[in-house]
């Protein structure tokens, strides 16, 4: 029966792993596709895709035309976007069309109707329903037509603007379209934008030498991992420094990474609503970007050029970059933090493909306390393991490698040695056993809650560990419940209690319910479901948030498990009289 249970558990684990893989694949595919579904309300203002690359400077290979040059309130005008160039690609994938006041291009005007709902959809920008049109998928398109309806309070002239994307790196932003004017009104001169409107177009130089930790704590503030490392001599050093220069702050960032290194300014120790800066490797150069993360999501790159004196360096797998940023920025930079405040600092690194960043490879390094960016120089410290997760690991290890093993040994091997000694009306071995087991359950429950407090919910990236952990916690809670129903030692029902236990183990075709009873009773008698427990702990110590040193952390835990098994074996042999101890 137990072997059957083990097989079922193995099958369950395989199924759960497959489910996790499918879930992660769905999340990953959503991340890679980005805004292929066309829900691009985030770009309504500057019409810039969140691709993290500069717009193309080539001549746009498309045309946008209107079937009328004059309008009256309520008129319907057909607008056509189509490919024009015979060179290069003969299609586009994404688009965004808006109509704006020609005299004030920040004001959206009128609404649209769809002609081809299969490839186009209406967007709500600035709380105006239907004020823009975008694509519905990433399929290849050669033409799209929409109807624009002039409002009753239409301005004297309206200009159509379009953003078109042929690929992730190849797109044109806010290209000017035709201007339509009310009858009798001369159209204003058309405004031309070029390919760089709304994009970060800083020209970066190349660093001639590596950064150094010289001056950390005296001339500049530094955050380093490992603590005290020097990026000039240690290629494994993750390094961030900053110092005030007049009305701006100079930042230096360095670290070994396959795709990018980054840091963030945060008002707390949780990822989300943070001001982020990334140095992203793209072939043999580095792009330096400002971004914002609203949660545990992909960063949204800034459309404003706020970084100055940018420079970068690539050497031996290490990415280095530096830039300067004004302490106070204009109000239109909504998601940029003022540098005259105190923040926690995050440092992270990871992979990138064609300039697209992936989730960080390790738990981010988080400064121990908030620091003033423009304050006196400090040599900062940080940790990659959050305090709540450290407590989680500590409570679970104490409970399941210390108190529970002591409680099991107390009940199984000290019962005959302390038959008559009592404390508070109960035998000594039983009081100690009960105290240790209650402590185990309490530590388990507290440790179980802490990851949810840290993550703010269920973690989708912890593998099967949380699922097995839930099983262990459930069984740990059930054990004292079963103990409450256990009759007193001198009760007549005690024999029936033990007989039901024996009968349960002899039933081979009782279905899931009988198997559950078997498991619960077996776990109660043995104090732990050793298989689930060991697997759960070994999976837990490799969680990114704990950041335990490998491989010796695995060796230490394995030694603890071996010690428990050997101690149990020696005491069992002694109890059966084969190994006299202390005689």
TrEMBL record:
Its main location: membrane. It holds the Pfam family DOMON. It comes from the Eukaryota. PROSITE patterns: CYTOCHROME_B561, DOMON, REELIN. Keywords: Electron transport, Glycoprotein, Iron, Membrane, Signal, Transmembrane, Transmembrane helix, Transport. InterPro entries: Cyt_b561/ferric_Rdtase_TM, DOMON_domain, Ferric-chelate_Red/DefProt, Reeler_dom, Reeler_sf. Residues 354-580 form the Cytochrome b561 domain. Residues 236-350 form the DOMON domain. Its cofactor is heme b. It is a multi-pass membrane protein. One of its GO terms (cellular component) is membrane. The chain crosses the membrane at residues 393-414, 435-454, 466-485, 546-566. Residues 19-196 form the Reelin domain. Residues 1-34 form the signal peptide. It is found in: Membrane. Coiled coil: none annotated. PANTHER family: CYTOCHROME B561/FERRIC REDUCTASE TRANSMEMBRANE, FERRIC-CHELATE REDUCTASE 1. Belongs to the FRRS1 family. This is Putative ferric-chelate reductase 1. It comes from Sinocyclocheilus anshuiensis. The lineage of its organism: Eukaryota, Metazoa, Chordata, Craniata, Vertebrata. The gene is LOC107677322.
């Amino acid at each position: 029966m137990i072997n059957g249970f083990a097989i079922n558990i193995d099958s369950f684990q395989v199924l759960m792993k497959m489910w996790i893989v499918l879930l992660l694949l769905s999340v990953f595919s959503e991340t890679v596709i980005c805004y292929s579904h066309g829900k691009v309300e985030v770009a309504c203002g500057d019409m810039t895709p969140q691709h993290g690359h500069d717009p193309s400077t080539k001549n746009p290979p498309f045309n946008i035309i209107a079937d009328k040059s004059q309008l009256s309130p309520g008129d319907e005008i057909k607008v056509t976007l189509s490919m024009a160039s015979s060179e290069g690609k003969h299609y586009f994938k994404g688009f965004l069309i808006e109509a704006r006041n020609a005299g004030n291009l920040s004001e959206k005007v009128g609404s649209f109707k769809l002609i081809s709902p299969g490839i186009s959809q209406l967007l709500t920008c600035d709380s105006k329903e239907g004020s823009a049109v975008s694509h519905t998928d990433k399929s290849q398109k050669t033409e799209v037509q929409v109807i624009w309806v002039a409002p009753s309070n239409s301005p004297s002239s309206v200009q159509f603007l379009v953003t078109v994307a042929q690929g992730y790196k190849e797109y044109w932003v806010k290209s000017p379209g035709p201007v339509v004017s009310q009858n009798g009104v001369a159209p204003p001169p058309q405004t031309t934008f070029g390919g760089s409107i709304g994009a970060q177009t800083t020209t970066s130089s190349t660093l001639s030498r590596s950064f150094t930790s010289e001056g950390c704590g005296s001339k500049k503030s530094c955050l380093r991992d490992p603590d005290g490392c020097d990026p000039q001599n240690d290629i494994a050093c993750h390094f961030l420094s900053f110092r005030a220069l007049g009305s701006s702050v100079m930042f230096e960032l360095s670290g070994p990474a396959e795709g990018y290194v980054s840091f963030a300014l945060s008002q707390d120790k949780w990822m989300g609503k943070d001001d982020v800066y990334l140095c992203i490797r793209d072939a043999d150069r580095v792009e330096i970007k400002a971004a914002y993360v609203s949660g545990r999501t992909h960063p949204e790159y800034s459309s404003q050029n706020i970084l100055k004196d940018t420079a970068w360096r690539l050497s031996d797998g290490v990415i280095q970059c530096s830039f300067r940023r004004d302490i106070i920025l204009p109000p239109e930079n909504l998601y940029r933090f003022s540098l005259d405040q105190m923040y926690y600092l995050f440092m992270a690194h990871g992979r990138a493909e064609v300039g697209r960043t992936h989730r960080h490879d390790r738990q981010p390094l988080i400064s121990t306390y908030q620091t003033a960016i423009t304050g006196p120089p400090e040599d900062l410290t940080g940790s990659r393991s959050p305090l709540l997760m450290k407590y989680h690991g500590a409570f679970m290890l104490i409970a399941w490698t210390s108190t529970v093993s002591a409680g099991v040994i107390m009940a199984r091997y000290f019962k005959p040695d302390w038959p008559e000694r009592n404390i508070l009306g109960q035998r000594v071995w039983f009081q100690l056993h009960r105290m240790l087991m209650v402590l185990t359950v309490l530590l388990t429950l507290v440790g179980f809650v802490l990851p949810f407090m840290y993550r703010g919910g269920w973690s989708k990236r912890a593998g099967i560990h949380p699922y097995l952990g839930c099983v262990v916690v459930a069984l740990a809670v059930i054990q004292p419940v079963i103990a409450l129903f256990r009759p007193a030692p001198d009760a007549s029902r005690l024999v029936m209690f033990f007989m039901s236990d024996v009968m349960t183990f002899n039933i081979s075709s009782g279905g899931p319910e009988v198997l559950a009873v078997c498991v619960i009773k077996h776990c109660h008698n043995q104090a732990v479901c050793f298989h689930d427990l060991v697997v759960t702990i070994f999976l837990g110590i490799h969680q990114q948030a704990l950041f335990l040193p490998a491989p010796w952390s695995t060796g230490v835990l394995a030694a603890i498990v071996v010690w428990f098994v050997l101690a149990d074996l020696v005491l069992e042999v002694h109890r059966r009289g084969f190994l006299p101890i202390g005689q």
